[in-house]
Each structure stands twice: as structure tokens, then as C-alpha cells.
Amino acid sequence: MLITANNPTRRSWLKVEKESDFPIQNIPFGVFFTKDDIITIGTRIGEYAIDLGAFHQLGYFDGIPLTDDMFMQDSLNDFISDGRKTWRLVRNRIAEIFDEKNSSLRDNVKHKEIIIFDVNEVEMLLPINVGDYTDFYSSKEHATNVGVMFRGKENALMPNWLHMPIGYHGRSSSIIVSGTPIHRPYGQSLPKGETTPVFGPSKSLDMEVETAFITTDANNLGEPISIDEAGEYIFGMVLLNDWSARDIQKWEYVPLGPFLGKNFASTISPWIVTMDALEPFRCESPKQDLSPLTYLKQKTTNNSFDIKLKASIETQNGELTEICNTNFKYLYWTMEQQLAHHTINGCNVRSGDLMGSGTISGSEKNSYGSMLELSWGGKEAITLKDGTKRVFFNDGDNVILRGFCKNNEVSIGFGKCTGKILPPINL
Ligand code: MN
Known about the structure:
Blueprint: E1 30-33, E2 39-45, E3 48-51, H1 52-57, H2 77-81, H3 84-97, H4 109-115, E4 116-118, E5 123-125, E6 133-136, H5 140-151, E7 167-169, E8 175-177, E9 182-183, E10 186-189, E11 198-201, E12 205-206, E13 209-215, E14 234-241, E15 244-245, H6 246-252, E16 266-268, E17 273-274, H7 275-278, E18 282-283, E19 304-305, E20 308-314, E21 320-327, H8 335-343, E22 354-356, H9 371-374, E23 382-383, E24 389-390, E25 398-406, E26 411-422
Parallel strand pairs: 6-22, 8-16, 9-26
Antiparallel strand pairs: 1-2, 1-5, 2-3, 3-4, 6-7, 10-11, 12-15, 13-14, 13-22, 14-16, 14-17, 18-19, 20-21, 20-25, 23-24, 25-26
The structure holds manganese (II) ion (MN).
């Protein structure tokens, strides 16, 4: 089925600013509270949030097999379960109805009032009920940088790293939507040169600039997903800030990996951008140093996406400083390889599962996706526009991730993924 929703020449009768992340070619999916306090699934064009529950009720999806309450839900899990054919039919229809040449909704004032909201008047919620959250570690530059700092240059990459996408199981309970503030977490850490740990608020609160993909029901327990089919089970992507407390992490991570240094919060952007919308930005993935084992070998080499990723700190006086400028395409292991690896032992993946990429760092210093790397383990402070310095984050910092794709015809973006750091709670 053609993805007619991607037609780059299409214009909408809804006004879209030139620099918008949400032209009619994007059509992402999210969940929000309308100004009448109703929860609905929706999409976004320009600065307008579109209530797909009402859109469906008023007959604009007629002819597409959808349950009556498909969009009147508080998560996208059921819609995602319906599979790629439905996702495509729905995006294509939305594009058609909002096309400037289509008068059906454009000229129906009453319906427009029910369906269309100013995006600033709605409250975005978590778009999915995250069943399971897995975080990979698939940027070679990031893994190498961290390895050099923790173990020295000779042992930077662990011997397994080039053979498989390394990952760990995180917590889904603390996945939060953009705009939710976080408190500086408490934990144990081992001060440098000491042999006894101390307890207190983390002194090295950090971000991880990541993306995450969201799966549909993919396999039954015991049945792996093949590398060639893996892409069929990926619905879309969001931005992910995988907050990390480096001092807690450093003390706890041996031998079982990340735990309390990671699971206090992970923030995602509210609009899921579909893989269909990202298709025009498909690009070569990095050449892999070693030929992977057969179950991880892909037939083609254009398995990545050119998604520009940026991180900024907004300080309490409102001043914004960009601290990281990286790209999804630097990622060594592809999403298909991650999903094929995840299920090769028969592990079952369900609708709404979230798979983090791992921190995405490039080779240039300003492309490092964490403060740990940007300040090189806390040794080199970054000076912000307001003159203050950071090695890790301060209380009051608002950390903002952005992501977008751009070619000569169209740009598709993710909007913002933000989180403000509040002081530790009183224990
Ligand atoms: Mn991470």
C-alpha cells in the first residue's frame, strides 16, 4: 500500500509555519486531555491538536475497519496492535481530509469546533502504556568514550560489544512524558579514593540523548523475530532522555548493570512519529567493523535514518544554551538488529514496548550525548550563555531535547522532550 500521506507537495488547509516540526506529511500520534477534560488519541498538524476520537465518531474514517472506540482510549496500544496496514490507512485518510483541496471537514464549521484544538490548550499525556522498557547501548562512540573513562583506552570496548547490541531491561513505571519535572534522586555512591560508600542526593545528575522505538505485538513466547521481518513490527519513534545519576551508577553497576542510577525517571516526547513518516529520511547505517552473526545480518545497508538531535540547557533566568548536536544515523547497531537480537532467545515483545537506542554520540566533541562525555568525566566544565558553568546538571536546569529530519522538500520533527530538575525531596 502506498504511503500517500508522505506526498511532499501536499498542503493543508490548516496553517502550518515554515519551521514547524508537524507539517501535514508528519501526522504523528499522541494522547491528550482536551480543554473539556476528555482523554483522546490525536494527531497534530502545525499548532493544532486533532481529536481522532471525534474525527472517527463523525465518520471521517468511514470505510477503514476500526473498532468504534479505537481512538477514545488513554493509550495507543490497541491501535498499534492493529498493525502496519491500519496505521497506513489511517495516516493516508487524515492527510486526505486535511488536504487544502478537500472541503469535507474544511467547510464544516461545527465539526471543526469539535475536532480541532489549539495545541497549547491540550495537555499531552504518555502516548502508550509501556509494558516493558529495554535500553540498548548501541553507539560505538558513546560506549568507547565511557569505556575509556571507566576502564582506560586499552579496554574501552568490552569484547562482546562488536558482536551484538548490548542492552538491559529498565523500568516502565518511571517512564514519564515531556514536561514532567524530576527530583534529584538519592542513592549510594563511593567518593573517589574512599572504601566506604556515602548516602545523599546525586552529585552527578546527567542526561542521555536517545531515541526510542515502539513495537507492536511481534511474537509469541519462544518464537524469535527474524532480522528481515523486524522492521514490520516497529510502529514509530520518540525522543528519550534517559536520566542518569552517574555517581550512583558507578558504584552499583558491577556486576549486573544499571539499576537505581537509571530507574528514577526516563522522559519521552509525547508525539510518536511513525516509521512511515520517517521513510523519506532513510540512510546508510555505519559500516560495521565485524561481519555480524547470520541472525543479525541485514540484506541492505540503508538501515538508518537521518534524524538530527540536539540538547540544550535552559537556566532559571530563561537563557538557552545548546550543549549537544548529534544524529541518529551515527548509531552502530540498527533498530532491526536490536529487535532481532532481543527476541532470538524467544523473548516476547508486545504492543507498546519501548526500546531505547542508548546514548547517541558522534565523533565530534559537541556531538556527545551525555554530560559525562561533554565534561569528560567532570574534568572540563561547559560554560553556559549566562556565564555559569556545568559539569553535570544543577537544580533548576530545564533540559530540552529536540529531533528533526530535513530534506529539500519537507521537514519532519518530534517536537520537544523536556524535563526540569527540582531539588531533592526532604527525607
Ligand atoms: Mn540509556
